[in-house]
Amino acid sequence: MVEKLLRIENNRLLIILAILSLIFAFSSPSFGEKILVFDEANLLLEDEEESLNLKANNLSDKYNMDIVIVTTNDTMGKSSRDFADDYFDYGGFGVGEDYSGILFLIDMDNGEAYISTTGIAIRYLTDERIESILDLVFDNGLIDGDYYGAAVGFLKGTEDYLEKGIPSNQYNEPEKPREKNTLTVLDFILSLIGGIVAGGIFLFSIKSKYKFRRARKLYSYGTNSFVNFTRNEDRLLDTFVTHRIIPKSRNTSGSTSGRSTTHRSSSGRTHGGGGRKF
Fold it and tell me: Which CATH class is domain 34-176+258-277?
């Protein structure tokens, strides 16, 4: 009988604890939110981090993509671009089969603000739009140390362009691979020999021109020169005017305004993006 009563009391206690846990969970403002802000460089206050996380979640849910904000003091020897791409890829972010999302990085190690795009976000944020968002990031206090304001500027600019939609002239353009210039030992030897031969030929030709050259007699300009002045008149016979419409030059800058330059990250995924030093 005693064991039965204890069992009943334990069940009641478990039920009460479960109810309290649910009440606490549902009353929490962060219930159901993803963690999308990672302040690894400790640049934000706790309430600033919570505010940014809420804004990022709302924007992510609205446009069905992960919008992540990261700060760091150590990129482990990587560039800002590589660090941002890898953080997104290996952090498990991205929505859908194309892993759509945007990551904003404040890199204190390399001193750069960088925006990485993936999936459908590449088409929304063209190169030109990314530069415009970075303008907002800097105008909102990045250089002055207002990192919260800079992140808010990023979210504001991103939201504006997501609302405008994909530009009608948008296109993806893979970046051109950088050519690797390698100089072999044979190339060095051939270049050295060629330089010596060319230099020798040039030196020999110069010396042959100036060696044993006789001095020329000075020209007697006083006795052998003369000046003859003649009168010349120009008469206007007739005039006519031609009218021609000069077409205005077309502005070709729009041909690149819709470009989204893409590259491959270490994971093999396609990313867009851009950054700016501070």
Answer: alpha beta
